[in-house]
Amino acid sequence: MMTKSKKLRWSFFVFFIPVFLWLLLLIVLPHIELLRMSFARPAYLKQPGFTFSNYIEFFKEPIYWNTFFRTAMYSITVTMIVLIIGLPVAFYITKIASLKTRGFLTILILIPFWVSELIRVYGWTIILRESGIINHFMTKYGIWKQPIEMLYNDAAMIMGLVYTSILFMVVPIIGVMDSLDNSLIEAAYDLGAKKTVIWRQIIIPHCMPGIISGCIIVFMMVLGSYLTPNLMGGKNSMWFTEQIYNQFILYRNWNMGSAFGFLLLFMSSIIIWVALKLSGQSLKEVVK
Amino acid sequence: MIRSLPNSKLYTFSFTAFIVLYFFFLFAPLLITCILAFNNSMIPTLPWKGFTLDWFFGTGKKTGFFHDPINLRAFGVSFRLAIAVSLMSTAMGTCAAFLFEQENFPLKNVMYLLMIAPIVIPGVILGISILSFTTTVADFFKNNFGIRLDFIRPSFWLVAFGQFSFISTYVCMVVSARLKKFDRTLEDAAYNLGANRFQVIWYITLKYLRPSIIGGLALSFLLSFENFNTTMFLVGAEFPLPIALFNRVRDGSTPVINAISFLLIFATSVCAMVNLILSRKKKED
Amino acid sequence: MEIALSVKNVVKKYGDFTAVNDVSFDVEDGKFFSILGPSGCGKTTLLRMIAGFFEPTAGSIQIRGKDMANVPPNKRPVNLVFQHLALFPMMDVKENIAFGLRRRGEKTPEVMKKVHNILERVGLPEYADKRIDQLSGGQKQRIAIARCLVLEPAVLLLDEPLGALDLKLREHMKVELKKLQAEIGTTFVYITHDQSEAMVMSDHVAVMNNGHFEQIDSPSNLYNNPASSFVAMFVGNNNKVTGVLAKDDSGKFFVQDKNQLKYAISTVKDCKEGDVVGMYTRPEAIIINPAEDKTFFNRTGVHVKAVLFDGGNSRLLVVTPTGQEVLVALPQNHQFDYIKKGDNIVIGWDPASSVCFKETGAKMYDDEI
After folding, report:
1. Number of domains comprising chain A
2. Does C120 touch chain A (CB under 8 A)?
3. pLDDT digits (tens, 9 = 90+) for A186-241
4. Which of A201, C211, C297, C342 has the smallest count of CB within 10 Å of its CB?
5. Range(s) of the domain holding residue B46
6. pTM (2 decimals)?
């Protein structure tokens, strides 16, 4: 407004400098360094220089790229499952539940997600494992003769990932469904539309922005998760983040780890970019 | 179809059943974790062997949380970490909200995209990139100037910086949402009544933002307290609680973990309630 | 009289668009000055330049003889009552009023004394501890004004502050505001698009259109002697007839419309014979069934198309035989109760009641003839 005023200048720099330093020192430079590292020779070779070997190694070793694509595929699967469960949940809370229970349900749905992921996953491990709660009841009532190990397999891992990420689908969809005027549904109903038509032509198109942002956030969370696959997945079904951890912490091969990190970042950027292009949204709207 | 339209009994019933199942799925692990914190058994499972508070206060064979030095120390580290991170992130997030909502400058959009990037960058990658960068910088200063920059080696403060790097973004989102709704004629009115820029921000804008700043503090405290993915690459000698618990969870342990979980679930539920009540009030304003 | 506010040749441009075009005026100390104009005419821009939120592109603004160029808004001796009042919701009434005093660094006892004084003056002495959302629309209004008046500004600027109120309250506040101003004696500069607000309260009114002033005058002069067709249409109601100005053998002027119908007119200002002009006649100047004995009088038989009942503002919509629609004031004294839709009546008016201006072709509103 007062472009000439010197006082505005002063306040601009008070805001600008800290934010600039934050983004430069903790976001931009670290990622540039990560990129540089991924193209550098491992330190133990004692001959620094530029190389593609970290990336070549990734494609030469099937276990690496298998993990990579498995992680991507499972992340997409989990996102779809979360969408299929989350959509009716959001619909129930915004459009079917009575106005009184609605506020209560919204609070209820949030509470588990304030609790740390580790504790939530821990809860599942004591339910599912060989000496867990389900096996206790099943053997006690003689339905199963032997306890069955239900943990450490892909199904358990997928369930755990759905569990830890579903809120991030439900909340944005509740947001857009809230803004859907009930009278639109009533009008369609009045004009003789069936439920499937109402869903396909009115509800889904209106909720698309929320669905897209939910999908992107959930996909990112699942792709980058470490605890759930580690604690619930099997020993031979590694998540790609575990590969990165192994390279960095177990093998101390930071250059390889950096390359893996960049591949993960690259893949997630591509998938998000495609999702944004297909839906015609911008990242700005999605993270709101 | 919706509450204002006639629905068949089957439709209502099956939908309600689905929601009940969903909430059961949501709360089952938490409830079981909490219940087993009071089970008088050496492993966290059924059968029920009687009620006990040993996993909180016990000593000797059944060491309760309050007599477990390792976990207590980790709790202390997490607590100090969460305080430091929430203060830093809330200050930075508020700064960023002001910068992006109220100022105009070249390359604002590029900077905004960088600011929101941490939401879509996996925490693991944030962790390794900060680790590589700080290690390179620290090595550089050590090798060239002989200066030891230990606080940017894996340590308490490096974890704090790592968490701060993405938690600030979340705070900025929370504060921006409220700042967007701020009626800027209030600022004009304050200028008109003789206030300078600093006084306008202090007496008018920040007062208005207070509920969201408190919300940002609470959010950043919780995010810091429970963060694992970024933290695991940056920890030094002081282990925060999630890191300390992780190995015990994986290898199986006594129900002391249930006791800690119970305390955390209880505390975060109270926090969440307070936060929700505050945001309710905010809506009424 | 001292000049409180002097605006000289002020221009404000946004790129190619000129929001305020060479506006000059002086406001004497203690006067109530209004700027009246349709939305988008530049009046808010002008006000914000006086308050210091915008810098003029050219020209100068002086307050009590001091030039205000490069004086930021927080250092100017003027205060602004905002359109939506902009009361601080996070503070109570007394803190709102004290805000400006505290910024001047005045001591608390002194501040509180002034706050209570001004609350008494605006008639809300018990409201010091109320929250803003506990006040009614009219009370908020008075607090917003009190918050400015407590600083004893040289000029109080008001940006359509009655706009948000409902009709009844607005009528009431008009009178209140005028009384308050007379009592306190502060110079008021008031902008509005509501002519009634401007006419009732002001000593002088400037009519603004497309960034410039059309006329600065007393309310009665604006009504009786509009200086332009815009003022004639904007202030009060007017019937407009377009035609060519001509002179008859006796040297009297008349306006001849496209159907060759002639209307006598006595004052033509600077219009010349042969000009295409718009002739403006107020509905309340038109007499229904006038006496037969008047000479040099416009008289025509008309058909009643509709009776537009609106209490004291009731009118007849009539059509001349040539199809010209005319609005005629319908006094509610039962004298004309017999007139019904479809009747044929005679109307007439004194040629001295009409004014004419050269036709510019510019329409004021799209839906007007």
Report:
1. 1
2. no
3. 888 888 888 888 888 888 888 988 898 899 889 999 999 999 998 888 777 789 99
4. C342
5. 8-67+254-270
6. 0.83
pLDDT of B177 over the 80 cut: yes
Top residue of C55, C57, C75 to mutate, by most chain A CBs within 10 Å, is C55
Which residues between 28 and 57 in chain C have a beta carbon less than 8 angstroms from any beta carbon of chain A? 53-55
Beta bridge partners of A73: none
Q: What residues make up the domain containing A170? A: 55-287
pLDDT tens track for A77-111: 999 999 999 999 999 998 888 877 887 888 888 88
- At C366, is the pLDDT very low, low, confident or very high (cuts 50, 70, 90)? very low
Task: Please answer yes or no on whether B285 and C53 come within 8 Å at the CB atom.
Answer: no
Are the Cβ atoms of B193 and C103 closer than 8 angstroms? yes
- What class does CATH assign to C3-230? alpha beta
Domain ranges of chain C: 3-230, 237-358
The DSSP secondary structure of C298-333, one letter per residue, reads EEEEEEEEEEE-BTBT-EEEEE-TT--EEEEE--SS
CB of B182 less than 8 A from some CB of C: no
CATH number of C237-358: 2.40.50.140
Q: Give every CB contact of residue C363 below 8 A, 6+ residues apart in sequence.
A: none
Which CA distances in Å does B236 have to A28, B85, B131, C186? 24, 17, 11, 69
Chains that touch B (3 or more CB pairs under 8 A): A, C
Complex confidence, ipTM: 0.86
Assign B151 a pLDDT band (cuts: 50, 70, 90).
confident
Check CB contact of B205 with chain A, cutoff 8 Å.
Answer: no
Chain B residues closer than 8 Å to A131 by CB:
43, 45
Of B207-211, C48-52, C163-167, C364-368, the one with minimum mean pLDDT is C364-368
